[in-house]
Structure formats: structure tokens, C-alpha cells
């Protein structure tokens, strides 16, 4: 079951978001439209736009501006994917060729820029300065998170705190912007807005932690990308940081060398070390802690099916296999 199918009341709105996205990919430049449609329609759960819809509905919103607002969040997310794949030299995403593998780096970067600018065009139409402030700040922090991740790449001395700062910026910030902007649109109380902001932040962190675990557990078919990508790119994610902390000198040195040089030559022994040192369980536990914080934040909201679905999503985030 896809996340949007958890709540029948939100399904028609979710379909309206999909239609809105497709209808706003138009461009006078055919390649822009072709790449835009390819990446937007290549799968994905549309979790971030779903969070906009659920948050607005949980606060009693009755208008229709949550549809373009949800589309904005997806445009921004898609733009970051296009840029990320170029930075990481990725050739597989969601089980398909990445845009850069098919069309090259330059078109991918430029179409990512197009999607960012389209998001801000739609934002102007919504006309909320508070929402503009939240989303423009989020895009800035996301960019900083990506640069910090780049600085941490191939650095085996990256700390757990530094790693958490990266995922707060590059992943959790857009989750947070999705839920907080939905709350703003619904004109909810300051307490409810803060609750939904925190929910999005903690959910985003939990989501990324499980993503990093799956790099050592899932198959390429389950993940829709290459297993071991993080290690190949020399990314010191939490499973590796914990494994270095808990492993013996020989194990620690093997991981350190693999992070420094990147590549997959030592993938199998490192996967074994990650499991033996309890790094998988440790990361999953951290993810569960974040999911529990997300759920607890929702206590201030009135009971509704939308609140229940938000809770379900936090539970699904830590139990998913792909």
C-alpha cells in the first residue's frame, strides 16, 4: 500500500497534486519538459507533498491552496534529486537511469534550476509571506546540508554530531517545511504550527536514518538504487560511524580506508562489520527514537483521521524495506 492510500479522504487531493505537477511542467524548451516529466513521473512515494495535505487537513483547512503548496514541495524535492545525482555521479534512482546518466550533467543541473524557479513562481501565486519565509529558508538550509555532506565525504573522522547536522539539512528540512507550511496555510495556532514543524523534522531524520541502514541491508531492486552507494561515494553515514567506534583496530582501519578512497572493493567485509558491531541496530534505534518524538509532537492536535495517518507514517518510516 502506498502512503497516500492510508487515508481515503486525502486520496482525491493527492491525485489533484499529481495532476497539478504534470500540468505545471510546461516549458518553451522541449528538453526541459522532457527531463522534468521523466524525473517527476519516475516513481517515488510523494511523501513530502502528502505531508502538506495531511498537515493542512489536520488543522481543519477547507480551501484548495494546499494542492499547489504540495506541488511546490515536490518540485523542490525533485530539483534536489537532480542536483544530488550529478554531485554523487549516480546512475540509478528508483530503479531507473538517473537523468544525468541519460542526458548528461549539464541538462540535469539546469532542469533542477528550472524546477526550483517554478516552485517559487507557484509560491508567489499562493501569496503567503510566512510560507515563503519557511520554504525559502528550507531551500537555503538544504543547500548548506549538501555542501556539508560534500565536505564530510571521504573523511573517516566525521563525528556523529556532524553527520546528524548533514541529515537535518539535506533531508529533514524539507519534511519540516512541508508540515509547517501546511499548518501555516490552515491558519492554525502557534502551538499547533510548532508541533507540526517538530513532527516533520523528527520524521525526516528517522526517514534518512533508515535510508542509510538500507544501504547495508536491501537489494538494489528493493532500494531502486545501487546497494553500497554511500560507501562507494565515501559517505560516512551513521552505520559506518558506529562500526568504527565499536570495531577493533583492524575493522576500524578497513572502514577508514574504504571511506577515504571510496569504491566497493571492500563492501562485503564492511557489511559484515556493520552487522557484527551492532551498527544496524544502533541506527534503527536512533530512528525509532526520532519517530517516537514525531508522534509525541502531535499530541496538541485535535483527534482526526489525518492525525492518525501522520502517526502511521512515522511508524512506516522506521519499518520500511524500500
UniProtKB/TrEMBL annotation:
MF (Gene Ontology): all-trans-octaprenyl-diphosphate synthase activity; metal ion binding
BP GO annotations: isoprenoid biosynthetic process
Catalysis performed (reactions): 5 isopentenyl diphosphate + (2E,6E)-farnesyl diphosphate = all-trans-octaprenyl diphosphate + 5 diphosphate
Enzyme's top EC category: transferase
InterPro entries: Isoprenoid_synthase_dom_sf (IPR008949), Polyprenyl_synt (IPR000092), Polyprenyl_synt_CS (IPR033749)
EC code(s) of this entry: 2.5.1.90
Signal peptide: none
Domain of life: Bacteria
Keywords: Magnesium, Metal-binding, Transferase
Cofactor: Mg(2+)
Family statement drawn from the similarity comment of this UniProt entry: Belongs to the FPP/GGPP synthase family.
Protein's job: Supplies octaprenyl diphosphate, the precursor for the side chain of the isoprenoid quinones ubiquinone and menaquinone.
Protein name: Octaprenyl diphosphate synthase
Gene for this chain: ispB
Amino acid at each position: 500500500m502506498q502512503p497516500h492510500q492510508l487515508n481515503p479522504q486525502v486520496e482525491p487531493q493527492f491525485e489533484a497534486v499529481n495532476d497539478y505537477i504534470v500540468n505545471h511542467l510546461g516549458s518553451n524548451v522541449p528538453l526541459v519538459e522532457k527531463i522534468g516529466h521523466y524525473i517527476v513521473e519516475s516513481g517515488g512515494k510523494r511523501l513530502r507533498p502528502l505531508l502538506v495535505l495531511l498537515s493542512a487537513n489536520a488543522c481543519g483547512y477547507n480551501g484548495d491552496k494546499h494542492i499547489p503548496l504540495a506541488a511546490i514541495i515536490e518540485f523542490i524535492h525533485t530539483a534536489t534529486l537532480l542536483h544530488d545525482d550529478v554531485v554523487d555521479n549516480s546512475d540509478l534512482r528508483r530503479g531507473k537511469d538517473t537523468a544525468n546518466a541519460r542526458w548528461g550533467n549539464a541538462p540535469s543541473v539546469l532542469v533542477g534550476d528550472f524546477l526550483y524557479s517554478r516552485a517559487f513562481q507557484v509560491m508567489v501565486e499562493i501569496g503567503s509571506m510566512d510560507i515563503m519565509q519557511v520554504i525559502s529558508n528550507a531551500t537555503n538550509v538544504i543547500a548548506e546540508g549538501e555542501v556539508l555532506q560534500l565536505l564530510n565525504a571521504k573523511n573517516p573522522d566525521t563525528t556523529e554530531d556532524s553527520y546528524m547536522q548533514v541529515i537535518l539539512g539535506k533531508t529533514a528540512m524539507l519534511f519540516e517545511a512541508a508540515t509547517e507550511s501546511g499548518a501555516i496555510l490552515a491558519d492554525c495556532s502557534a502551538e499547533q504550527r510548532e508541533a507540526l514543524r517538530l513532527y516533520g523534522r523528527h520524521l525526516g531524520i528517522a526517514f534518512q536514518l533508515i535510508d542509510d541502514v538500507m544501504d547495508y541491508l536491501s537489494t538494489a531492486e528493493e532500494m531502486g538504487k545501487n546497494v553500497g552507494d554511500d560507501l562507494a561515494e565515501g559517505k560516512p553515514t551513521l552505520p559506518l560511524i558506529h562500526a568504527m567506534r565499536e570495531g577493533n583496530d583492524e575493522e576500524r582501519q578497513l572502514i577508514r580506508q574504504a571511506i577515504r578512497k571510496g569504491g566497493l572493493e571492500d563492501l562485503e567485509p564492511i557489511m559484515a562489520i556493520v552487522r557484527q558491531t551492532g551498527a544496524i541496530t544502533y541506527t534503527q534505534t536512533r530512528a525509532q527514537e526520532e519517530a517516537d518524538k514525531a508522534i509525541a509532537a502531535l499530541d496538541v492536535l485535535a483527534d482526526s483521521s489525518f492525525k492518525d495517518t501522520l502517526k502511521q507514517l512515522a511508524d512506516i518510516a522506521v519499518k520500511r524495506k524500500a
